[in-house]
Design goal:
By secondary structure, the protein is an alpha/beta fold. It has helices spanning 2-12, 18-37, 62-66, 78-87, 106-112, 130-138, 180-190, 217-226, 231-234, 249-259; strands at 46-50, 70-75, 94-98, 121-124, 145-149, 159-162, 192-198, 201-206, 267-270. The chain has one domain: Vaccinia Virus protein VP39 (Rossmann fold, 3-Layer(aba) Sandwich). A seven-stranded mixed beta sheet has the order 3-2-1-4-5-8-7, with helices on both faces. The chain has a two-stranded antiparallel ribbon with strand order 6-9. Helix 6 (130-138) packs parallel to helix 7.
Amino acid sequence: MKHLISKILKMINPFKASCVNQIEYTADEVKYIDQYLSQFERNTNFYVDIGASDPRLGSMTYFLFKKGYSGLAVDCDMEKYANIEKIYQSYPLVTPVFKKVTPDNIQALFHDKGVPIEFDFLNIDIDGYDYFVLNKILTSYRPMLICAEINEKIPPPILFTVLYQPDYQWNVDHFYGQSISQLYLLCKKYEYDLVKLYYNNAFLIPRELNKFKALTPEEAYDEGYRNQPDRREKFPWNSDMDPLLSLSPKEGIIFIRSKFSRYERKYHCSV
């Protein structure tokens, strides 16, 4: 049934189908999260999930709540939030938060909800100006593990990010988020190691805690997306962006500017 639903969604809107496909590989991401968290000698058993979505559809944090973690499940989609509230009624340590997170309100949200300075895990997936929200978080907080969504279509060394605008909404197309090289700027700025990319999710660990191999954006991208044997099967809607993978950086920027011509002045793109 899941595959039938996925096929129907792809015919209607291939991007919406991604939530169905995500179920297929979230188990691997959960495995990595559990593996990384088990390496830390101290923990707070607290995490924050920004863009928590429906826990039944590929959540990377639901398993932590079931293990007794406390934390925040934040989302601004009314339908998804209704499911979050309903499902987490049985888990009193979970605080559902209905809020559109921005760089302007994220610090206040963390403060008001009592988020520890060094908490265990941050998941951020808001399909937009993720870079600016994460940058704001890291000015005051140091999560021990971060899973940050990237725009997997845009290879290194291209620096790409959607700019923050209060009225931004994802149009369910290729225009969202940050490239892995853009995210890596925050790694350098706040001394985090990039330890893995799994398709469109990058895992970061503070340098002083990391026991794994630190990767360059190029290494992570090649291993985690470009050379994945089932990449085209899992992300068939990216086929019109695949030319980027063989273009030079300068040619890639020209390609991106053409693709995103309707979004002029709403993003940053450079090398």
